[in-house]
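Sample entry (117 residues):
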Amino acid sequence: MPDGGSVIRKLVKLAIFLLIANAVYRIIPPALHYYKFKDAVQELALFSQKTPDAELIDRVMALADENDVPLDRDYVQVRRSNNQLLIAVSYVESMNVLPGYSYEHQFDIEAKAFDVR
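Predicted structure, serialized as tokens:
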């Protein structure tokens, strides 16, 4: 028959495991959304060299909606210089890592494309 200390240690280990599993479960979706959104913005930059800036910002906002990214239009910048297009995006997402504890993480994206003509 197991002693009381052994049972308590197993319960503590189980509780720690469940807290870690819960945190991973809550962190993975925002990370996946970030990577999908980042790839989509990079693709947009590569194939939109001649697109007006306002339209590019509209497309970035549509991509954010498609990828469940909480993006404010004010945090999308489009810059052009020396045959280069740069789309810079920044957003903050709140993640509930542990019960009662929320973590704010800032995601930054810079998508560059060069016009080689």
